[in-house]
């Protein structure tokens, strides 16, 4: 904090009042650094300062005194392009280095930070107004720990992450009020696995620039970390640069939603970390005093810039912390995001009610549970739909523990194994293809269903294929009461399938939600047993299925192999589901942190047209094995094998667990993508469909996986049954369990 | 961006207690005050870590705080080789804790800064009373009692020890509790014993040493604190200085929270005395800050806060010397105690 200007009271007076005094810390070091830049900050690109001419600049001010510290250039599109170009050039070398070399480099950066920590903390404190103590005692050590942890991960990468490769150039967008730690959490894993990074920081954020300079001054590998400052509106410009494979955004929910819509169809991955709300569940069995400290910690958490309240003038930038009690969930105030430390307290009567209230919001970030009763604490901890849950603690962080969220808090992760996977893709993933359809009309895509008319008599072997939508465990007539003809490879009518619509999707999602608690409650072993039973049933149905596939032009031998492979997939995922989640060790914590893998909930899947049986099963099996309930749209050209499988599903699996809706794929995709209560969506279809799904997912920010029109080798284990599917079929939750008596 | 939080709290919170009566300022035992207590060890440890680092005082503030800390010290000698001569030396140091010229430089020489008390073994009470009288001051003499430090003697002799110390002129008695009663959960028996100590003290102040290093858990520390206050202690004190673990911040936090709860339930302010292992001026400042944060300024007076220490004073005097002169003092620059 800046030194107070009022006259110091004499020791005599303080002896009586015992008040706290100012604890001034010299900012000379930070000012001297700003002087080296002539108080004029640019961008740091490719190991050099970039200060282009004819750019607007904004002042960087001391928030306490309002004093102008420096002027900061605002980037324009060319500057962004230069930074991405530098990152692309650096990528060629950096991504092909042995992990051990990258580890060495990260360790050197950690040492560099250690050597210049005073400069880092005084600069950060001076510019953000945060207390020196906070930055010095927590942020700076954590930044070094992050580098060291990720250096270890880089070191073991070839062995531990075989089959994965770095994504490429990562664009990182951080919000206007944030600690440089938010950047460190994301660049460390990206750099560790071999990606290079362009960070777009808000104007007037010198600390990230200093970090980039420290990294640049290591000499080797300039260009792996480039920092440009400019408005958030440059985000789409950054994303659209060729070579950028992924954009990681953290910030406000509505900004994230807008970015999701803007980037739909651009062919890059987008991860969002949104909002900063946190939740505390305080039960009657809690250590209330400690819980109150937890509230204070949470109010000053590191998710965002924290303004320290003190005896400062009312026109200062410091918000006083606010407590609102007895605010019912329905109050508009309970649902708005506000920019100041706010605590909202509301009562509950039972643990069940607490869960209902806590899970009844779109937020899914972090929560803490305060209860000394182990059973109750675990019940609440497991029941909360949140990314992180602390038991009897709040706001703990460690590089080894994944931090992230679910629902509208965005499902991106940093730290731990999950943080690494954010910047990895299965080896051999094709590079980004610009596939944007500028003229795709989101309002009308898949809106109307073309009418279908009778197409002649059904021919071919009996029995006739099953008819109807498979919803809630039985075949049902579609709401529209119409059907669509399915032709075989000779153009003859194979049969009719039901024409599903919005109401059928609604029904299927409802049925899936009803089945969800029962299925989640099953042990992985029980789930594996049921998948095994389904596999056995498929085996018995082999000839019928092969015959169906044959009619669609698949050679009998290949058709039989497809059935056989489908059977294997079901069995394999059943077995994999039993080895999930694990315990993480955290250096400074006594007690374990559990990395849980939890189901996404109701997962909608649009199967590809190709491999009508194998792709259907390959997608269904991991989804079920991880505890999801599913609504599937089978292959459009050949949906009958999937319906055939449903006949066995009907007798073997609980009703509502698997729902299969046939019909116009674009229309059904539209219905599912816009459905707010579908928790995740996998789409394998057209380029336009992929773009629509990405755009529509902004509604509830559901995680989506789209193929952007690209085919996938479903018969190859890497693509048809690889770890990527398992990773996408479940979400992580970190459950902190500190111990001690 | 801010940090809205949803705390969800129960309506039937058990914290604000049941119907209790205050009779003549002393409470009856109501075990419901302790039966539902929850203390979370790791959370308290975290708080302890934070509170030590969160606040700092510098310059004049530091000097003033340190002088204030002097007035909280129970200047203590509890050694097997104590004799009248070193007790006398100690008493003069209690009267003149900081060199006069240093106080003058701070314009504090007329504030009559002395330590809060002198604390000795029962057999040395007479020496201390005599020495303090000779020094012309009315600094109270505190005596440890009740089989200090282990408390493993008969109740009868423990009570007699208190009476004798009071007779000799001790106006404050630091008693140790019977740890076995805590460890076996005999809270009512503990209450009864402390009540008897209280009676034996008569007019003298009762400071109850919980010997927290030997109580097994923080929950026990809370319960023992509450029982000691309910039984009429004027102060609760962390430790004898003779256990392997002495005054630590986590234990202090639990005891301070018990004091606060007791105040909220009854309106009575009970004092707190950490003792054992507090040696540096920096430690002393951290303790003052802890009291200020947990209980508030009202507790920052000798009637409600003491620090049991023997070597702390010389370090404080050294810091004051540095503040005034800008030099680090040599060993011989400051008079010994």
UniProtKB/TrEMBL annotation, chain A:
Locations of Polar residues compositional bias? Answer: 426-437
Please indicate which superkingdom the organism of origin belongs to: Eukaryota
- Residue ranges constituting the Aldehyde dehydrogenase domain according to the UniProt record: 49-305, 314-425, 487-707
Indicate the segments annotated as coiled coil, or none if absent. Answer: none
Cited InterPro entries: Ald_DH/histidinol_DH, Ald_DH_C, Ald_DH_N, Aldehyde_DH, Aldehyde_DH_dom
Among the GO molecular function terms of this UniProt record, one is:
oxidoreductase activity, acting on the aldehyde or oxo group of donors, NAD or NADP as acceptor
Region Disordered, residue ranges? 403-437
Per its record, how is this protein called by name?
Answer: Aldehyde dehydrogenase 16 family member A1
This chain's source organism reads Equus asinus
From TrEMBL, chain B:
Look up the EC number in the record and give it.
4.1.2.4
Q: Which GO terms describe its biological process?
A: carbohydrate catabolic process; deoxyribonucleotide catabolic process
From the Swiss-Prot or TrEMBL record, state where the protein is found: Cytoplasmic granule; Nucleus
* GO MF, one annotated term: deoxyribose-phosphate aldolase activity
Q: Does the keyword Cytoplasm apply?
A: yes
First-level EC class? lyase
Catalyzed reaction equations: 2-deoxy-D-ribose 5-phosphate = D-glyceraldehyde 3-phosphate + acetaldehyde
Its main subcellular localisation, reduced to a broad class, is: cytoplasm
Tell me which GO cellular component terms the UniProt record holds. cytoplasm; nucleus
Name the pathway it acts in. Answer: Carbohydrate degradation; 2-deoxy-D-ribose 1-phosphate degradation; D-glyceraldehyde 3-phosphate and acetaldehyde from 2-deoxy-alpha-D-ribose 1-phosphate: step 2/2
Key words of the record? Cytoplasm, Lyase, Nucleus, Schiff base
Q: Which Pfam families match?
A: DeoC (PF01791)
Q: Which InterPro entries match?
A: Aldolase_TIM, DeoC, DeoC/FbaB/LacD_aldolase
The question of whether Nucleus is a record keyword is answered with yes
Task: Please name the NCBIfam families in this protein's record.
Answer: deoC
Say which family it is in.
Answer: Belongs to the DeoC/FbaB aldolase family. DeoC type 2 subfamily.
Q: What does this protein do?
A: Catalyzes a reversible aldol reaction between acetaldehyde and D-glyceraldehyde 3-phosphate to generate 2-deoxy-D-ribose 5-phosphate. Participates in stress granule (SG) assembly. May allow ATP production from extracellular deoxyinosine in conditions of energy deprivation.
On subunit structure and binding partners, the annotation says:
Interacts with YBX1.
Q: Indicate what this protein is called per its UniProt record.
A: Deoxyribose-phosphate aldolase
Q: Name its species.
A: Equus asinus (Donkey)
